[in-house]
């Protein structure tokens, strides 16, 4: 009882300083970036590893403040409210993603310590400095995306994420990684150009880029101006390219192929989610229901195609890392089922609001559990590749005995990915299936089931090969550090434990959703 009172007091204290926490979440990684770059790779890792737990504490405090207050928290920079000033805002979705980002980056930072540490007395190389500064750059950009309230700030934050993530793909400097990074860069630039064009159309129509003000203008627009419709299409297309939704996923698997395991974990778990979050805000928080209703099935149709294409391609891969990469293509598709399910449930005559919240919660839970599970799987795949000298699936025989903790963590993460009990993925897919049943969208339920079967099939294929030859484990070229394996295991357990958390804990996701467009 006393512990509950203390936690409640701390949450109330965080709520009282909510605006300051938003500034701190944005400033902390940005301020750490400067000395990390100036002092070199030997100090960059130490600074990043010191900053990461502090950032996790700030993210926890923001989530507690939003949950405790039951309303979004906001901060106007310089005391100037939009449209003159710039606002930061954290609702339930933002707080959830800030927390997820901090958790994943803490685990990635611990994992990467072995690969990007400059040993005492040795000459400093390029990779540690580049990796740690880029990691802080990605973190700054992600927090900017999750807290930004106007389209210009979101554009800047998205570009910071992209231009920090692209070099992570080619840290080794090999020709094939440079080609993959160049392809990623071209898609990122394509998305950026479309985003800018769309923002110009919004500003030209209403004279503001603030999402809240745009939503107020559009709420009374009948009909919606053609320029706004064009802006919505352009912006969504640009963001889909950054999210790697089918058929714009062509840059993602090659980017993973040669990237370091820690870089792949960040790219798959967090970077592609940033642009999805902006799509979510655009269609749910800004555009009116008259626009979102007809567009939602199109987005979900692309999601279904991604689930099927990514699942089949994953089954065809010969390398473990490429299998996990195509699995990301498939899992991204699940996120886009949220649009017709949430909007369809909101239109139900009775209980619609609850079903809509369930669909949205299911989508966000899918996002969080996938982030944890996929980061764990990429890091596990990286440990296996380094230990065996390859990641060819058919030649993994005996790896389950040689690397039991790593393979066990990979399997645990796979449980959530496949949507098996008692994982977070299971709860997410159950909520989405319930919304599909309630709204009569059988095709969404069908895609969820088929996607689960495909995921189970390629995971069983990996585990079967890892268990073959169990009596004769392979000779390891390099044994993973124990703390690396524990970081992987922690993320996999996190994805699993999400399914055991009380349902009331997920109410955080819906804070700030009630009065927004699309959720009457």
From TrEMBL:
Q: Which residue ranges does the record assign to the NADH:quinone oxidoreductase/Mrp antiporter transmembrane domain?
A: 149-455
The transmembrane residues are 21-40, 47-66, 86-108, 129-146, 152-172, 184-206, 226-252, 264-284, 296-316, 323-347, 367-390, 402-422, 442-464, 485-506
The GO terms describing molecular function are: NADH dehydrogenase (ubiquinone) activity
Q: Which membrane topology term applies here?
A: Multi-pass membrane protein
Keyword vocabulary terms for this entry? Membrane, Transmembrane, Transmembrane helix
This protein's major location comes to: membrane
One of this protein's GO BP terms?
Answer: ATP synthesis coupled electron transport
Please provide, in alphabetical order, the Gene Ontology terms of the cellular component aspect for this entry: endomembrane system; membrane
Question: Which Pfam families would you find in this protein's record?
Answer: Proton_antipo_M (PF00361)
- Lineage top rank: taxon: Bacteria
- Indicate what this protein is called per its UniProt record: NADH-quinone oxidoreductase subunit J
User: Which species does this protein come from?
Assistant: Candidatus Thiodictyon syntrophicum
